[in-house]
Predict the structure.
Amino acid sequence: MSCPLCQSANTSSHYHTDKKRSYLQCSQCDLVYVSPEFLPSKEMEKQEYDLHENSFEDEGYRKFLRKVLTPLSPFIKATSEAELCGLDFGCGPAPVLASMLTEEGVNMNTYDPFYAPNLQVLEREYDLVTCTEAIEHFHAPHVEWALFNELVASGGALAIMTKRVLDKTRFANWHYKNDITHVSFFSETTFQYLAERDGYDVSFPANDVVLLRKR
């Protein structure tokens, strides 16, 4: 079996089993992921996503998104002389973060395989790519990560929001893994591995936010 992120063969071993699923971990990139036989169907995913009630008027959700917007502000201000172009990848049915970044002066596009499947926006480079609460849903994250590497321009930023794996003990009681659409779980080590391999400077401004600046 190959790791769904780094594609290393024979590097994964059992990590955890609960009442619903089994999880593996890659010793190369540290990714924890759901064993393939437990991956949800596209229909199951869509049913779950349709239950989400995030909206433009939800101040609580906007406050949540400011956790990723706030550490991006210095990057946006430092490049304010040129028009910044951004992409919100996995924006969902209500692209609130894209709207907030537009208010900050960033020219935003959106993409989501279920709600905004416009493949044309994936055919160019961006100064800023955001992916909030989406990367944990990727069944084959090596595909999307390779795409991110193409989408982020040299000197550009990739901002990701996802809760991170800490250790086996806390994983066992972690509510985040109980969502059936959450199938790929990243740690700081995972992001550090990807940054070193693919040429990014990485920082962790919050326990569920990671910023990567492409060299």
About this structure: The chain has one domain: 12-214. The chain has a mean pLDDT of 95.
